[in-house]
Design a protein that fits this description.
By secondary structure, the chain is of the alpha+beta class. The protein has one domain: Gcn5-related N-acetyltransferase (GNAT) (Aminopeptidase), CATH 3.40.630. About 35% of the residues lie in helices and about 35% in strands. The chain has four helices and six strands; from the N terminus they run H-H-E-E-E-H-E-H-E-E. A six-stranded mixed beta sheet has the order 1-2-3-4-6-5. The longest helix is centred in the first third of the chain and has 18 residues. It starts with a helix and ends with a strand.
Length: about 140
């Protein structure tokens, strides 16, 4: 996934082997510390890997919040998978895990991801810097 320029364009660009290893280690550590994190997604039961999704802590303005995220191989774009997983993760975070807020970020020019996040029940909540790049912030608060 990290070597695919098209897939990684909305995620800040291709990652080399060392960056990928660090990403995997960071996400495994998150699982160990919190009991949730990154999932690899398959099409149907024993189908091919189509992408990944996550619920994990993200620092937003100095405060840890729970982030929803996803990425799919380009051949699976436009098939509704992103909306399905984002909606499921928002519901999982709220209903089963009891998180008060859920956030998501996307590159400012990623209109497709912004539409997915709004379909999943998140609302625009300003902008923030992430990995040195400006991102749009979305938020879902419990009422």
């Amino acid at each position: 996934m990290h070597a695919d320029a098209r897939q990684m364009a909305p995620l800040g660009g291709v990652r080399d082997e060392a960056e990928t290893r660090e990403y995997v280690e960071r996400n495994l550590d998150h699982w160990d510390q919190h009991g949730f994190g990154l999932w690899i997604l398959r099409e149907a039961e024993d189908g091919p890997v189509i992408g990944r999704a996550l619920l994990r802590y993200l620092s937003v303005n100095g405060k840890d919040e729970v982030e929803v995220g996803y990425s799919f191989h380009p051949e699976y774009w436009g098939k509704g998978y992103a909306t399905e997983i984002a909606t499921t993760l928002v519901r999982l975070g709220r209903e089963l895990m009891g998180f008060e807020t859920i956030v998501a970020i996307t590159m400012r020019d990623n209109g497709a991801s912004k539409r997915v996040l709004m379909k999943a029940g998140l609302e625009p909540a300003g902008e923030m810097l992430h990995a040195g790049e400006p991102h749009s912030l979305f938020r879902r608060r419990e009422t």
